[in-house]
Amino acid sequence: MTVVAEPTPSGTVLATVRTRLVDWIPAIVVFCAGIAVWQLSIEIFNIQKFLLPKPGAIISAFWTQRGALWRAGWLTLKEALGGFALGSAAGILVATVLARFRRLGEALMPIAIAANAVPIIAFSPIFNAWFDPLSSKPRMATAGVLCFFPVMVNTLRGLTSVRPAQVELMRSYAGGELQIFRRVRIPTALPFVFSALKVATVLAMIGAIVADYFGSFGSLGITIKNSVALFDFETAWAAILMASILGVLMYVAVSLVERIVLQWDPTRQERGTA
Amino acid sequence: MTVVAISGVTKTFPKGHVTALQEIDLQIEPGEFVSLIGPSGCGKSTLLRVIGDLTAPSAGTVEVNGKSAHHARLDHDYGMVFQDSVLFDWRTVAKNIGLPLEMLGFDRSRRKQRVDEMLQLVELQGFGDHHPWQLSGGMQMRVAIARALAFEPALLLMDEPFGALDEMTRERLNIELLDIWRRMSSTIVFVTHSISEAVFLSTKVVVMSPRPGRVAGTVDIDLPQPRSGDTREDPRFFQKVTEVRELLRGVGADEHGSVLAEERA
Ligand SMILES: Nc1ncnc2c1ncn2[C@@H]1O[C@H](COP(=O)(O)OP(=O)(O)OP(=O)(O)O)[C@@H](O)[C@H]1O
Ligand SMILES: [Mg+2]
Fold first, then answer.
1. 8 Å CB contact of A264 and B91
2. Cβ of residue A164 closer than 8 Å to a chain B Cβ
3. For the whole model, what pTM was predicted?
4. CB of A116 less than 8 A from some CB of B
5. ipTM score of the complex?
6. Segment A176-212, tens digit of pLDDT
Protein backbone atom coordinates (compact mmCIF):
# COMPACT_ATOMS: atom_id res chain seq x y z
CA MET A 1 0.00 0.00 0.00
CA THR A 2 1.44 3.33 -0.92
CA VAL A 3 0.36 6.50 0.70
CA VAL A 4 0.54 9.74 -1.17
CA ALA A 5 0.24 12.86 0.88
CA GLU A 6 -2.79 14.80 -0.26
CA PRO A 7 -1.82 18.12 -1.72
CA THR A 8 -2.86 20.76 0.73
CA PRO A 9 -5.35 23.16 -0.85
CA SER A 10 -2.93 25.58 -2.44
CA GLY A 11 -5.26 28.57 -2.65
CA THR A 12 -3.43 31.86 -2.59
CA VAL A 13 -4.78 34.58 -0.37
CA LEU A 14 -6.05 36.33 -3.48
CA ALA A 15 -7.97 33.27 -4.65
CA THR A 16 -9.50 32.91 -1.20
CA VAL A 17 -10.54 36.54 -1.19
CA ARG A 18 -12.04 36.12 -4.65
CA THR A 19 -14.11 33.08 -3.65
CA ARG A 20 -15.23 34.93 -0.52
CA LEU A 21 -16.35 37.87 -2.67
CA VAL A 22 -18.20 35.52 -5.00
CA ASP A 23 -19.96 34.08 -1.94
CA TRP A 24 -21.08 37.57 -1.02
CA ILE A 25 -22.42 38.64 -4.41
CA PRO A 26 -25.99 37.36 -3.90
CA ALA A 27 -26.25 39.14 -0.55
CA ILE A 28 -24.92 42.40 -2.00
CA VAL A 29 -27.32 42.23 -4.95
CA VAL A 30 -30.32 41.62 -2.68
CA PHE A 31 -29.20 44.45 -0.39
CA CYS A 32 -28.86 46.96 -3.22
CA ALA A 33 -32.18 45.88 -4.71
CA GLY A 34 -33.82 46.35 -1.33
CA ILE A 35 -32.46 49.88 -1.04
CA ALA A 36 -33.65 50.69 -4.55
CA VAL A 37 -37.14 49.36 -3.84
CA TRP A 38 -37.20 51.41 -0.64
CA GLN A 39 -36.18 54.65 -2.44
CA LEU A 40 -38.56 54.05 -5.35
CA SER A 41 -41.59 53.08 -3.28
CA ILE A 42 -41.27 56.25 -1.20
CA GLU A 43 -41.29 58.32 -4.38
CA ILE A 44 -44.10 56.35 -6.01
CA PHE A 45 -46.42 56.02 -3.00
CA ASN A 46 -45.44 59.41 -1.57
CA ILE A 47 -44.70 58.06 1.92
CA GLN A 48 -44.31 60.72 4.61
CA LYS A 49 -40.78 61.08 5.90
CA PHE A 50 -41.78 60.56 9.57
CA LEU A 51 -42.92 57.10 8.52
CA LEU A 52 -39.86 56.32 6.45
CA PRO A 53 -37.27 58.72 5.06
CA LYS A 54 -35.56 58.07 1.74
CA PRO A 55 -32.31 56.09 1.96
CA GLY A 56 -30.55 58.92 0.11
CA ALA A 57 -31.70 61.43 2.72
CA ILE A 58 -30.55 59.18 5.55
CA ILE A 59 -27.12 58.76 3.98
CA SER A 60 -26.70 62.47 3.40
CA ALA A 61 -27.75 63.17 7.01
CA PHE A 62 -25.24 60.52 8.07
CA TRP A 63 -22.52 62.21 6.04
CA THR A 64 -23.16 65.78 7.15
CA GLN A 65 -23.37 64.81 10.82
CA ARG A 66 -20.69 62.15 10.73
CA GLY A 67 -18.60 63.87 13.43
CA ALA A 68 -21.39 64.07 15.98
CA LEU A 69 -22.68 60.64 15.11
CA TRP A 70 -19.22 59.14 15.50
CA ARG A 71 -18.76 60.78 18.93
CA ALA A 72 -22.17 59.49 20.02
CA GLY A 73 -21.41 56.10 18.48
CA TRP A 74 -18.07 55.88 20.24
CA LEU A 75 -19.73 56.54 23.60
CA THR A 76 -22.37 53.86 22.99
CA LEU A 77 -19.79 51.46 21.58
CA LYS A 78 -17.71 51.80 24.75
CA GLU A 79 -20.79 50.97 26.83
CA ALA A 80 -21.58 47.97 24.63
CA LEU A 81 -17.99 46.72 24.55
CA GLY A 82 -17.56 47.14 28.30
CA GLY A 83 -20.80 45.30 28.98
CA PHE A 84 -19.91 42.60 26.45
CA ALA A 85 -16.49 42.03 28.00
CA LEU A 86 -17.68 42.01 31.60
CA GLY A 87 -20.87 40.03 30.99
CA SER A 88 -19.18 37.42 28.81
CA ALA A 89 -16.22 37.04 31.15
CA ALA A 90 -18.57 36.58 34.11
CA GLY A 91 -20.66 34.11 32.09
CA ILE A 92 -17.63 31.99 31.19
CA LEU A 93 -16.30 32.14 34.75
CA VAL A 94 -19.58 31.10 36.36
CA ALA A 95 -20.06 28.32 33.78
CA THR A 96 -16.57 27.02 34.57
CA VAL A 97 -17.33 26.88 38.28
CA LEU A 98 -20.71 25.22 37.66
CA ALA A 99 -19.11 22.66 35.32
CA ARG A 100 -16.60 21.81 38.03
CA PHE A 101 -19.23 21.49 40.76
CA ARG A 102 -21.96 19.69 38.86
CA ARG A 103 -24.34 19.52 41.80
CA LEU A 104 -24.26 23.27 42.23
CA GLY A 105 -24.85 23.65 38.52
CA GLU A 106 -27.88 21.37 38.59
CA ALA A 107 -29.29 23.29 41.55
CA LEU A 108 -28.74 26.71 39.98
CA MET A 109 -29.68 25.95 36.38
CA PRO A 110 -33.47 26.30 36.81
CA ILE A 111 -32.91 29.58 38.60
CA ALA A 112 -30.62 30.79 35.82
CA ILE A 113 -33.18 29.86 33.18
CA ALA A 114 -35.91 31.68 35.11
CA ALA A 115 -33.64 34.71 35.52
CA ASN A 116 -32.93 34.62 31.80
CA ALA A 117 -36.66 35.00 31.14
CA VAL A 118 -36.77 38.26 33.13
CA PRO A 119 -36.76 41.20 30.71
CA ILE A 120 -33.44 42.59 31.89
CA ILE A 121 -33.85 45.75 29.84
CA ALA A 122 -36.55 46.70 32.34
CA PHE A 123 -33.88 47.06 35.01
CA SER A 124 -32.12 49.77 33.06
CA PRO A 125 -33.58 52.73 35.03
CA ILE A 126 -32.83 50.88 38.26
CA PHE A 127 -29.17 50.54 37.30
CA ASN A 128 -29.20 54.33 36.97
CA ALA A 129 -30.00 54.45 40.67
CA TRP A 130 -27.38 51.85 41.56
CA PHE A 131 -24.49 53.39 39.65
CA ASP A 132 -23.46 56.95 38.85
CA PRO A 133 -26.02 57.82 36.13
CA LEU A 134 -23.60 60.26 34.49
CA SER A 135 -20.94 57.59 33.98
CA SER A 136 -21.33 54.79 31.45
CA LYS A 137 -21.59 52.22 34.27
CA PRO A 138 -25.39 51.78 34.31
CA ARG A 139 -25.41 51.22 30.52
CA MET A 140 -22.54 48.78 30.75
CA ALA A 141 -24.42 46.97 33.51
CA THR A 142 -27.50 46.57 31.29
CA ALA A 143 -25.43 45.34 28.34
CA GLY A 144 -23.40 43.08 30.63
CA VAL A 145 -26.37 41.40 32.29
CA LEU A 146 -27.92 40.84 28.85
CA CYS A 147 -24.71 39.12 27.65
CA PHE A 148 -24.20 37.10 30.81
CA PHE A 149 -27.00 34.54 30.52
CA PRO A 150 -26.59 33.23 26.98
CA VAL A 151 -22.82 33.04 27.39
CA MET A 152 -23.11 31.26 30.73
CA VAL A 153 -25.74 28.77 29.60
CA ASN A 154 -23.96 27.94 26.32
CA THR A 155 -20.51 27.64 27.89
CA LEU A 156 -21.86 25.31 30.53
CA ARG A 157 -23.55 23.22 27.87
CA GLY A 158 -20.28 23.07 25.92
CA LEU A 159 -18.19 22.14 28.93
CA THR A 160 -20.54 19.31 29.84
CA SER A 161 -21.21 17.90 26.38
CA VAL A 162 -17.88 16.11 26.02
CA ARG A 163 -17.86 12.65 24.48
CA PRO A 164 -17.54 10.08 27.30
CA ALA A 165 -15.07 8.05 25.24
CA GLN A 166 -12.69 11.00 25.10
CA VAL A 167 -12.85 11.35 28.86
CA GLU A 168 -12.15 7.62 29.19
CA LEU A 169 -9.14 7.94 26.93
CA MET A 170 -7.76 10.67 29.18
CA ARG A 171 -8.43 8.54 32.23
CA SER A 172 -6.57 5.64 30.63
CA TYR A 173 -3.56 7.97 30.62
CA ALA A 174 -4.15 8.67 34.32
CA GLY A 175 -5.37 12.18 33.44
CA GLY A 176 -7.13 13.93 36.32
CA GLU A 177 -10.03 16.37 36.24
CA LEU A 178 -7.74 19.29 35.51
CA GLN A 179 -6.12 17.57 32.52
CA ILE A 180 -9.51 16.50 31.21
CA PHE A 181 -10.73 20.05 31.61
CA ARG A 182 -7.80 21.55 29.76
CA ARG A 183 -7.49 19.01 26.97
CA VAL A 184 -11.09 17.91 26.39
CA ARG A 185 -13.69 20.16 27.99
CA ILE A 186 -12.32 23.51 26.86
CA PRO A 187 -11.79 22.52 23.19
CA THR A 188 -15.25 20.91 23.12
CA ALA A 189 -16.81 24.03 24.61
CA LEU A 190 -15.14 26.57 22.30
CA PRO A 191 -17.63 26.32 19.40
CA PHE A 192 -20.48 26.75 21.90
CA VAL A 193 -18.75 29.73 23.50
CA PHE A 194 -18.20 31.46 20.19
CA SER A 195 -21.76 31.08 18.99
CA ALA A 196 -22.89 32.57 22.32
CA LEU A 197 -20.39 35.43 22.03
CA LYS A 198 -21.77 36.32 18.60
CA VAL A 199 -25.28 36.51 20.03
CA ALA A 200 -23.87 38.53 22.93
CA THR A 201 -22.44 41.22 20.62
CA VAL A 202 -25.93 41.88 19.33
CA LEU A 203 -27.43 41.87 22.82
CA ALA A 204 -24.72 44.23 24.10
CA MET A 205 -25.55 46.77 21.41
CA ILE A 206 -29.29 46.49 22.08
CA GLY A 207 -28.67 46.83 25.81
CA ALA A 208 -26.46 49.88 25.41
CA ILE A 209 -28.85 51.72 23.05
CA VAL A 210 -31.99 51.02 25.05
CA ALA A 211 -30.22 51.97 28.27
CA ASP A 212 -29.14 55.19 26.54
CA TYR A 213 -32.82 56.14 26.27
CA PHE A 214 -32.89 56.49 30.05
CA GLY A 215 -30.34 59.23 29.91
CA SER A 216 -26.81 59.08 28.63
CA PHE A 217 -26.02 62.49 27.26
CA GLY A 218 -24.33 62.54 23.89
CA SER A 219 -24.95 58.86 23.17
CA LEU A 220 -26.54 57.26 20.13
CA GLY A 221 -29.70 56.34 22.02
CA ILE A 222 -30.22 59.93 23.13
CA THR A 223 -29.50 61.18 19.61
CA ILE A 224 -32.25 58.91 18.27
CA LYS A 225 -34.70 59.91 21.00
CA ASN A 226 -34.06 63.66 20.73
CA SER A 227 -34.07 63.74 16.92
CA VAL A 228 -37.46 62.03 16.86
CA ALA A 229 -38.77 64.59 19.39
CA LEU A 230 -37.59 67.36 17.03
CA PHE A 231 -39.15 65.63 13.97
CA ASP A 232 -35.62 65.28 12.55
CA PHE A 233 -36.24 61.74 11.29
CA GLU A 234 -33.25 61.69 8.91
CA THR A 235 -30.89 62.18 11.85
CA ALA A 236 -32.71 59.53 13.91
CA TRP A 237 -32.34 57.06 11.04
CA ALA A 238 -28.72 58.09 10.51
CA ALA A 239 -28.06 57.32 14.20
CA ILE A 240 -29.76 53.94 13.77
CA LEU A 241 -27.51 53.35 10.77
CA MET A 242 -24.49 54.16 12.92
CA ALA A 243 -25.71 51.76 15.62
CA SER A 244 -26.16 49.03 13.00
CA ILE A 245 -22.68 49.57 11.60
CA LEU A 246 -21.13 49.36 15.06
CA GLY A 247 -23.17 46.25 15.89
CA VAL A 248 -22.10 44.55 12.67
CA LEU A 249 -18.46 45.49 13.36
CA MET A 250 -18.59 43.87 16.79
CA TYR A 251 -20.17 40.75 15.32
CA VAL A 252 -17.63 40.55 12.52
CA ALA A 253 -14.74 41.03 14.95
CA VAL A 254 -15.90 38.08 17.06
CA SER A 255 -16.48 36.00 13.91
CA LEU A 256 -12.93 36.66 12.78
CA VAL A 257 -11.48 35.56 16.10
CA GLU A 258 -13.71 32.49 15.93
CA ARG A 259 -12.46 31.70 12.45
CA ILE A 260 -8.87 31.81 13.64
CA VAL A 261 -9.40 29.90 16.89
CA LEU A 262 -11.69 27.24 15.45
CA GLN A 263 -9.76 26.44 12.28
CA TRP A 264 -9.89 22.78 13.29
CA ASP A 265 -13.66 22.63 13.51
CA PRO A 266 -14.94 20.41 10.67
CA THR A 267 -18.37 22.01 10.69
CA ARG A 268 -16.86 25.32 9.59
CA GLN A 269 -14.60 23.78 6.93
CA GLU A 270 -17.35 22.28 4.81
CA ARG A 271 -16.87 24.81 2.04
CA GLY A 272 -13.51 26.58 1.88
CA THR A 273 -11.32 23.69 0.75
CA ALA A 274 -13.59 22.63 -2.11
CA MET B 1 4.57 -12.16 38.06
CA THR B 2 1.13 -12.46 36.51
CA VAL B 3 0.35 -9.37 34.43
CA VAL B 4 -3.42 -9.56 34.67
CA ALA B 5 -5.16 -11.58 37.37
CA ILE B 6 -8.95 -11.54 37.13
CA SER B 7 -10.84 -13.49 39.76
CA GLY B 8 -14.56 -13.82 40.15
CA VAL B 9 -15.33 -10.67 38.19
CA THR B 10 -19.01 -9.94 37.70
CA LYS B 11 -20.31 -6.79 36.09
CA THR B 12 -23.96 -5.88 36.03
CA PHE B 13 -25.36 -2.69 34.59
CA PRO B 14 -28.29 -1.41 36.63
CA LYS B 15 -29.79 0.04 33.44
CA GLY B 16 -31.82 -2.81 31.97
CA HIS B 17 -30.43 -5.30 34.52
CA VAL B 18 -27.82 -6.54 32.09
CA THR B 19 -25.25 -8.98 33.45
CA ALA B 20 -22.40 -8.22 31.09
CA LEU B 21 -19.84 -10.41 32.85
CA GLN B 22 -20.35 -13.28 35.28
CA GLU B 23 -17.71 -14.92 37.44
CA ILE B 24 -14.81 -14.36 35.08
CA ASP B 25 -11.51 -15.93 36.09
CA LEU B 26 -8.54 -15.29 33.87
CA GLN B 27 -4.77 -15.15 34.35
CA ILE B 28 -2.54 -13.50 31.78
CA GLU B 29 1.18 -14.11 32.10
CA PRO B 30 3.98 -11.81 30.91
CA GLY B 31 4.59 -11.93 27.19
CA GLU B 32 1.28 -13.59 26.41
CA PHE B 33 -0.84 -12.49 23.49
CA VAL B 34 -4.42 -13.24 24.52
CA SER B 35 -7.36 -12.81 22.16
CA LEU B 36 -10.93 -12.49 23.39
CA ILE B 37 -13.50 -13.73 20.92
CA GLY B 38 -17.23 -14.20 21.20
CA PRO B 39 -20.56 -13.04 19.82
CA SER B 40 -21.46 -9.39 19.87
CA GLY B 41 -22.61 -8.21 23.27
CA CYS B 42 -20.90 -10.98 25.23
CA GLY B 43 -18.91 -8.50 27.27
CA LYS B 44 -15.51 -8.34 25.55
CA SER B 45 -15.30 -4.56 25.63
CA THR B 46 -16.63 -4.52 29.17
CA LEU B 47 -13.93 -6.99 30.28
CA LEU B 48 -11.24 -4.84 28.67
CA ARG B 49 -12.56 -1.75 30.46
CA VAL B 50 -12.65 -3.56 33.77
CA ILE B 51 -8.98 -4.53 33.29
CA GLY B 52 -8.19 -0.90 32.46
CA ASP B 53 -10.04 0.41 35.53
CA LEU B 54 -12.34 2.46 33.31
CA THR B 55 -15.33 0.77 34.87
CA ALA B 56 -15.49 -0.92 38.26
CA PRO B 57 -16.54 -4.58 38.53
CA SER B 58 -19.69 -5.26 40.57
CA ALA B 59 -17.89 -8.12 42.27
CA GLY B 60 -14.48 -9.76 42.12
CA THR B 61 -11.00 -8.33 41.80
CA VAL B 62 -8.62 -7.35 39.04
CA GLU B 63 -4.89 -7.07 39.62
CA VAL B 64 -2.49 -5.70 37.06
CA ASN B 65 1.23 -6.20 37.64
CA GLY B 66 0.51 -7.16 41.22
CA LYS B 67 -1.37 -3.98 42.11
CA SER B 68 -5.00 -3.00 41.90
CA ALA B 69 -6.18 -2.06 38.43
CA HIS B 70 -6.63 1.46 39.76
CA HIS B 71 -2.98 1.83 40.72
CA ALA B 72 -1.89 0.28 37.46
CA ARG B 73 -3.88 2.90 35.57
CA LEU B 74 -2.33 5.72 37.57
CA ASP B 75 1.10 4.21 36.88
CA HIS B 76 0.52 4.26 33.10
CA ASP B 77 0.87 0.49 33.02
CA TYR B 78 -1.24 0.00 29.92
CA GLY B 79 -2.13 1.54 26.58
CA MET B 80 -5.63 1.21 25.24
CA VAL B 81 -7.09 1.13 21.75
CA PHE B 82 -10.83 1.62 21.87
CA GLN B 83 -13.38 0.12 19.52
CA ASP B 84 -13.89 3.59 18.01
CA SER B 85 -10.79 5.55 17.19
CA VAL B 86 -11.60 8.30 19.78
CA LEU B 87 -9.49 11.03 18.22
CA PHE B 88 -9.59 14.70 19.14
CA ASP B 89 -10.85 16.78 16.22
CA TRP B 90 -9.03 19.86 17.48
CA ARG B 91 -5.66 18.15 17.34
CA THR B 92 -3.75 17.27 14.22
CA VAL B 93 -2.89 13.63 13.58
CA ALA B 94 0.62 14.18 14.93
CA LYS B 95 -0.69 15.87 18.08
CA ASN B 96 -3.21 13.08 18.60
CA ILE B 97 -0.43 10.52 18.51
CA GLY B 98 1.65 12.72 20.80
CA LEU B 99 -1.12 13.07 23.40
CA PRO B 100 0.01 10.23 25.70
CA LEU B 101 3.60 11.44 25.35
CA GLU B 102 2.51 14.89 26.52
CA MET B 103 0.75 13.33 29.47
CA LEU B 104 3.90 11.39 30.33
CA GLY B 105 6.02 14.53 30.12
CA PHE B 106 8.13 13.73 27.06
CA ASP B 107 9.88 16.86 25.84
CA ARG B 108 9.08 18.31 22.45
CA SER B 109 11.95 16.85 20.46
CA ARG B 110 11.55 13.33 21.84
CA ARG B 111 7.84 13.62 21.17
CA LYS B 112 8.36 14.64 17.58
CA GLN B 113 10.83 11.83 16.97
CA ARG B 114 8.49 9.25 18.46
CA VAL B 115 5.48 10.59 16.55
CA ASP B 116 7.41 10.45 13.28
CA GLU B 117 8.36 6.84 13.94
CA MET B 118 4.75 5.98 14.67
CA LEU B 119 3.47 7.77 11.54
CA GLN B 120 5.90 5.68 9.54
CA LEU B 121 4.80 2.49 11.25
CA VAL B 122 1.16 2.97 10.34
CA GLU B 123 2.07 4.40 6.91
CA LEU B 124 0.63 7.82 7.48
CA GLN B 125 3.74 9.85 6.66
CA GLY B 126 2.64 13.19 5.28
CA PHE B 127 -0.62 13.16 7.19
CA GLY B 128 0.79 14.49 10.46
CA ASP B 129 -0.66 17.95 9.85
CA HIS B 130 -4.10 16.72 8.83
CA HIS B 131 -7.04 16.71 11.17
CA PRO B 132 -8.73 13.39 11.98
CA TRP B 133 -11.87 14.25 10.02
CA GLN B 134 -9.78 14.59 6.88
CA LEU B 135 -8.89 10.89 7.07
CA SER B 136 -10.82 7.76 6.18
CA GLY B 137 -12.15 5.52 8.93
CA GLY B 138 -9.33 3.03 8.50
CA MET B 139 -6.71 5.77 8.60
CA GLN B 140 -8.29 7.14 11.79
CA MET B 141 -8.01 3.70 13.36
CA ARG B 142 -4.35 3.54 12.41
CA VAL B 143 -3.82 6.88 14.16
CA ALA B 144 -5.44 5.42 17.27
CA ILE B 145 -3.14 2.40 17.08
CA ALA B 146 -0.10 4.62 16.63
CA ARG B 147 -1.18 6.65 19.64
CA ALA B 148 -1.46 3.54 21.83
CA LEU B 149 1.93 2.23 20.74
CA ALA B 150 3.66 5.61 21.04
CA PHE B 151 4.68 5.24 24.67
CA GLU B 152 5.47 1.52 24.40
CA PRO B 153 3.24 0.34 27.22
CA ALA B 154 4.13 -3.07 28.63
CA LEU B 155 0.44 -4.03 28.54
CA LEU B 156 -1.72 -3.26 25.52
CA LEU B 157 -5.50 -3.55 25.66
CA MET B 158 -6.89 -3.49 22.13
CA ASP B 159 -10.59 -3.56 21.28
CA GLU B 160 -11.08 -4.69 17.67
CA PRO B 161 -8.31 -2.40 16.44
CA PHE B 162 -8.26 -3.80 12.90
CA GLY B 163 -11.99 -4.26 12.41
CA ALA B 164 -12.31 -1.28 10.09
CA LEU B 165 -9.31 -2.07 7.90
CA ASP B 166 -9.04 -3.80 4.55
CA GLU B 167 -7.64 -7.34 4.45
CA MET B 168 -4.20 -6.31 3.13
CA THR B 169 -3.59 -3.58 5.68
CA ARG B 170 -4.94 -5.80 8.37
CA GLU B 171 -2.51 -8.61 7.60
CA ARG B 172 0.40 -6.23 7.39
CA LEU B 173 -0.50 -4.59 10.70
CA ASN B 174 -0.94 -8.06 12.23
CA ILE B 175 2.69 -8.78 11.39
CA GLU B 176 3.75 -5.32 12.63
CA LEU B 177 1.89 -5.80 15.88
CA LEU B 178 3.55 -9.18 16.47
CA ASP B 179 6.87 -7.53 15.74
CA ILE B 180 6.25 -4.80 18.29
CA TRP B 181 4.97 -7.35 20.79
CA ARG B 182 8.19 -9.35 20.49
CA ARG B 183 10.51 -6.36 20.43
CA MET B 184 8.98 -4.68 23.48
CA SER B 185 8.25 -8.05 25.12
CA SER B 186 4.85 -6.62 25.93
CA THR B 187 1.66 -8.39 26.90
CA ILE B 188 -1.40 -7.91 24.73
CA VAL B 189 -5.10 -8.47 25.35
CA PHE B 190 -6.80 -8.28 21.97
CA VAL B 191 -10.50 -8.35 21.11
CA THR B 192 -11.45 -9.55 17.64
CA HIS B 193 -14.35 -11.04 15.71
CA SER B 194 -12.09 -12.89 13.31
CA ILE B 195 -11.20 -16.47 14.28
CA SER B 196 -8.24 -16.65 11.91
CA GLU B 197 -6.86 -13.35 13.17
CA ALA B 198 -7.19 -14.54 16.76
CA VAL B 199 -5.41 -17.83 16.01
CA PHE B 200 -2.73 -16.19 13.90
CA LEU B 201 -1.79 -13.57 16.51
CA SER B 202 -2.33 -15.23 19.84
CA THR B 203 -0.63 -17.51 22.26
CA LYS B 204 -4.03 -18.07 23.83
CA VAL B 205 -7.59 -17.56 22.57
CA VAL B 206 -10.33 -17.03 25.13
CA VAL B 207 -13.81 -17.82 23.83
CA MET B 208 -16.62 -16.00 25.60
CA SER B 209 -20.31 -16.85 25.71
CA PRO B 210 -23.08 -14.28 25.83
CA ARG B 211 -25.83 -13.41 28.30
CA PRO B 212 -24.31 -13.46 30.78
CA GLY B 213 -20.73 -13.12 29.57
CA ARG B 214 -18.61 -16.04 30.71
CA VAL B 215 -15.43 -17.74 29.62
CA ALA B 216 -16.66 -20.69 27.54
CA GLY B 217 -13.18 -22.10 27.04
CA THR B 218 -9.59 -21.28 26.17
CA VAL B 219 -7.46 -22.63 23.35
CA ASP B 220 -3.67 -22.52 23.65
CA ILE B 221 -2.10 -21.72 20.32
CA ASP B 222 1.34 -23.31 20.33
CA LEU B 223 2.16 -22.57 16.70
CA PRO B 224 5.84 -21.75 16.15
CA GLN B 225 7.07 -18.18 16.67
CA PRO B 226 7.70 -15.86 14.96
CA ARG B 227 4.49 -16.13 13.01
CA SER B 228 4.63 -15.25 9.32
CA GLY B 229 2.72 -15.70 6.11
CA ASP B 230 3.63 -19.39 6.28
CA THR B 231 1.80 -19.78 9.57
CA ARG B 232 -1.51 -19.38 7.78
CA GLU B 233 -0.68 -22.38 5.60
CA ASP B 234 0.38 -24.64 8.47
CA PRO B 235 -2.08 -27.56 8.92
CA ARG B 236 -1.90 -26.97 12.70
CA PHE B 237 -3.18 -23.43 12.05
CA PHE B 238 -6.33 -24.86 10.45
CA GLN B 239 -6.64 -27.31 13.30
CA LYS B 240 -6.64 -24.47 15.83
CA VAL B 241 -9.06 -22.41 13.74
CA THR B 242 -11.44 -25.38 13.72
CA GLU B 243 -11.03 -25.84 17.45
CA VAL B 244 -11.96 -22.22 18.15
CA ARG B 245 -14.82 -22.37 15.69
CA GLU B 246 -16.24 -25.45 17.40
CA LEU B 247 -16.11 -23.66 20.75
CA LEU B 248 -17.87 -20.65 19.25
CA ARG B 249 -20.56 -22.89 17.73
CA GLY B 250 -21.13 -24.20 21.21
CA VAL B 251 -21.95 -20.72 22.43
CA GLY B 252 -24.22 -20.01 19.48
CA ALA B 253 -22.12 -18.09 17.03
CA ASP B 254 -20.44 -18.65 13.70
CA GLU B 255 -17.46 -16.77 12.36
CA HIS B 256 -19.61 -13.69 12.06
CA GLY B 257 -20.98 -14.42 15.49
CA SER B 258 -22.60 -11.07 15.75
CA VAL B 259 -25.16 -11.81 13.05
CA LEU B 260 -26.40 -15.00 14.62
CA ALA B 261 -26.47 -13.62 18.12
CA GLU B 262 -28.34 -10.52 17.07
CA GLU B 263 -30.94 -12.54 15.19
CA ARG B 264 -31.67 -14.61 18.23
CA ALA B 265 -31.95 -11.67 20.56
N1 LIG C 1 -22.69 1.54 29.83
C2 LIG C 1 -23.53 0.49 29.72
N3 LIG C 1 -24.75 0.54 30.29
C4 LIG C 1 -25.59 -0.52 30.20
N5 LIG C 1 -25.31 -1.65 29.56
C6 LIG C 1 -24.12 -1.77 28.98
C7 LIG C 1 -23.16 -0.70 29.02
N8 LIG C 1 -22.06 -1.10 28.35
C9 LIG C 1 -22.32 -2.35 27.90
N10 LIG C 1 -23.55 -2.76 28.28
C11 LIG C 1 -24.14 -4.07 28.00
O12 LIG C 1 -23.22 -5.07 28.36
C13 LIG C 1 -23.20 -6.11 27.41
C14 LIG C 1 -21.78 -6.33 26.92
O15 LIG C 1 -21.37 -5.21 26.17
P16 LIG C 1 -19.93 -5.11 25.49
O17 LIG C 1 -19.81 -3.79 24.89
O18 LIG C 1 -18.90 -5.50 26.49
O19 LIG C 1 -20.04 -6.24 24.37
P20 LIG C 1 -18.94 -6.68 23.30
O21 LIG C 1 -18.67 -8.12 23.54
O22 LIG C 1 -17.79 -5.76 23.31
O23 LIG C 1 -19.76 -6.55 21.96
P24 LIG C 1 -19.24 -6.14 20.50
O25 LIG C 1 -18.54 -7.33 19.94
O26 LIG C 1 -20.50 -5.86 19.75
O27 LIG C 1 -18.35 -4.95 20.65
C28 LIG C 1 -24.18 -5.72 26.32
O29 LIG C 1 -25.37 -6.45 26.52
C30 LIG C 1 -24.44 -4.26 26.53
O31 LIG C 1 -25.77 -3.95 26.25
MG1 LIG D 1 -17.08 -4.30 21.99
1. yes
2. no
3. 0.81
4. no
5. 0.85
6. 889 999 999 999 999 999 999 999 999 999 989 988 8
